[in-house]
Amino acid sequence: MKEKIMGRRSFLKHTAAVTVGTSLLGQPRLAEGRRRGAKKLRKALQLRMLPKELSDADKFKLAKKCGFEGIEATPMEDLNAARRQAKLARDAGVPIHGLVFGGWHAPLSDPNPEVRKKGLEGMETALRSAKVMDADTVLLVPAVVKEDVRYADAYKRSQEYIRKLLPLAEQLGVIIAVENV
C-alpha cells in the first residue's frame, strides 16, 4: 500500500479545522461551569515585581490599586514574619495565594547529594511557609539540566525528591506545582 503524504496547505487546513472544532466543543462546558459557581481566573503578580523601596504594606496596596487580586510571594524561614506578611496582603485585599520556590539555587537534580538535601530542606520550608500564609500552592522548578546533568538523571533524581516531599505537602494541604522549564 502506498503511503499518502499530506502537503503543507492540507496540514494547515486540517489543523485549523480541528482547532476551531475543539474550541466550539468546550464552549457549553465553560458556560455550564460558570453557572455552577466555578472559580474564575484571577489576575495576580509576584511580590518581587513591585517597587523594592516600598514597604510590604505599601506594595500590597499598590497591587490592589492596580487591579490585582492576588500575590505570589517567596518562602520565609521565619514563620511569624510569614504570617505578618500574609495578614498585610489580606488586609490590602490581595491575599497571597501561592509561593515561588524555584529550585534554581539547589535543584533536586544536582549530582551532589548535599545540594539536593539543601533543595529538599528549602522546599520543606516553602511548604510550611505556604501553610501559615494560607497559600495553597508552592511552585517548584525541580531540575536543572546542564553539562554534568543529563535529562534522564535530572528526571530520576527530582522525582525521587518530590516523592519525599509529598507526605508533608499532603499533611499541610499545600499543592506542589511542578514547573518544567
Lay out the secondary structure:
Elements: H1 8-35, E1 44-46, H2 56-65, E2 70-73, H3 79-92, E3 96-102, H4 113-133, E4 137-140, H5 151-172, E5 175-178
Parallel strand pairs: 1-2, 2-3, 3-4, 4-5
List keywords for this structure.
181 residues, alpha/beta, TIM Barrel, globular
Radius of gyration: 22 Å
Extended strand count = 5
For the record, the count of structural domains works out to: 1
Structural class: alpha/beta
State the separation between the terminal residues, measured CA to CA.
42 Å
Q: What coarse outline follows from CA principal-axis ratios?
A: globular
In which order are the strands of the major sheet placed? Answer: 1-2-3-4-5
Look up the CATH topology: TIM Barrel
CATH hierarchy: architecture: Alpha-Beta Barrel
- Our count of helices gives 5
Strand content: 5-15%
Supply the CATH class. Alpha Beta
- Main sheet record: 5 strands, parallel
Please name the fourth-level CATH homologous superfamily: Divalent-metal-dependent TIM barrel enzymes
Overview of the molecule:
- It is a single chain.
- The chain is an alpha/beta fold.
- It has one domain (about 40-180): Divalent-metal-dependent TIM barrel enzymes (TIM Barrel, Alpha-Beta Barrel), CATH 3.20.20.
- The protein contains five helices and five strands.
- It has helices at about 10-35, 55-65, 80-90, 115-135, 150-170, and strands at about 45, 70-75, 95-100, 135-140, 175-180.
- The chain has a five-stranded parallel beta sheet.
- Strand 3 (about 95-100), helix 4 and strand 4 form a beta-alpha-beta unit.
- Helix 3 packs across helix 4 (about 115-135).
- The longest helix has 28 residues, at about 10-35.
- The protein is globular, with a radius of gyration of 22 Å.
